[in-house]
Amino acid sequence: MAPKRPKGAGAFPKPVESPAPKPPDPSELYAALDLGTNSCRMLIAQPKGNQFHVVDSFSKSVQLGSGLESTGRLSRGSMRRTIQALRICQQKLKRHKVRRMRLVATEACRRARNAKEFIQQVRRETGLQLEIIEPEEEARLAVISCAPLVSTNTEQLLVVDIGGGSTELVWIDMTKVPKIDRPKAIMRLHTGFHAGDSLFPAAKVVDWISVPLGVATLRDQFSDVEDDSARFALMSWFFEENLTEFAPYKDVPPSLGFQIVGTSGTVTTVAASHLGLRRYDRTKVDGLRMTSEQINKVIRGYLALGPAGRRRDPRIGQDRQALIMSGSAILQALLRCWPTDRLSVADRGLREGLLYAQMSADGVLEGGPF
Is 257 helix (H, G, I), strand (E, B) or coil? Predict the structure, then answer.
């Protein structure tokens, strides 16, 4: 006799539907757009604790500064590519109904004679209002983006932001800030490098500089040098020559509490190459500490590959391969200038700084306003 079949056996179970994730409240969303000499990048995020959660992002190489070194103007082709990218950004902002945003342009637009006409064209064709920010604000925003990576043991901090058209360096003294408050003291710099009286322990900006040489502009300076190694050596020497005015502690070697934080595509690419990542992983790169010998080993490897080998190397990527040697020349020059054998890698920069600054000013970060 066949066993009695249980009631309901064989029937499809009633599906249990997971509730759709609740879309973020547009009133909580912030956007930051960074239009640089080489790239157009945007983040849309919402505050979460003392950090933020990225809801959407965009990044594209637009080469806005292509030809700028020789003509002093933004070319029609580069403006057209950039406006196409900005249209995508505008669509994302509209879809998420973002109302709090800062959309900034940097060195290429600071230098181009036709920048004002370009900004007006962007407004007509996309509805986006770009603002050209000064080097000090660009440097300040890069610094505060790195606040979470600052060690509580750091007494002297050098933040280096290698861009497409310029490189910003900021030296900060934190000896008078209690250890536990040092990352927050960096965040408070969003109000300015020379803030007035404050109720909080203050980080002191000893000196800062914006060198009008980035990965694109430095490459263009030596584009006529055919030999790969000679071009690299010349680029590194030339960048170091442009740092002669920036030596806050030239005669007083930094103590063990000295930290360099590097933020840029160059720094993160070198880190990814060091780790052997064939597919980029931000979680492994951001916050990584590399020794100068590890960095130099990666750069020697790039030189050994030559231009053809670098184009094929998946760790470098198509967008970065044409710029990696000029960026490496800058990085190597920086490591020669200061007595440290370690660099903290930051996969963060102007966009993150813009978001932190907006959220801090609004008091929506936990523990804020800073």
Answer: coil
pLDDT in tens, 339-366: 678 899 999 999 999 999 999 888 888 7
Q: Among 98-107, 137-146, 358-367, where is mean pLDDT lowest?
A: 358-367
Contact partners, residue 156, CB within 8 Å, separation at least 6: 171, 172, 173, 174, 175, 249, 254, 255, 257, 258, 259
Nearest-angstrom CA–CA distance, 260 and 159: 6
Phi-psi region of 113 (alpha: psi -120 to 50; beta: other; left: phi over 0): alpha
Structure tokens at 207: 């000196």
Residue 291 structure tokens: 């020794």
Sheet with 131-132: list strands edge to edge.
Answer: 51-61, 39-48, 30-35, 100-105, 131-132
Return d(Cα 201, Cα 178) in angstroms, integer: 7
Q: Is the pTM of this model over 0.85?
A: no
- The count of C-alpha atoms lying within 13 angstroms of the C-alpha of 271, restricted to the half-sphere facing its C-beta, is 25
d(CA 359, CA 28): 10
* Distant-in-sequence, close-in-space partners of 124: CB < 8 Å, separation ≥ 6: none
- DSSP letter at 170 equals E
Cβ neighbourhood burial of 222 (10 Å; 0-12, 13-18, 19+): middle
What is the per-residue burial (b if ≥16 Cβ within 10 Å, else e) of 85-122? bbeebbebbeebebebbbbbbbbbbbbbeebeebbebb
Amino acid (one-letter) located at 311 = R
pLDDT digits (tens, 9 = 90+) for 258-304: 889 999 889 999 999 999 998 889 999 999 999 999 999 999 999 99
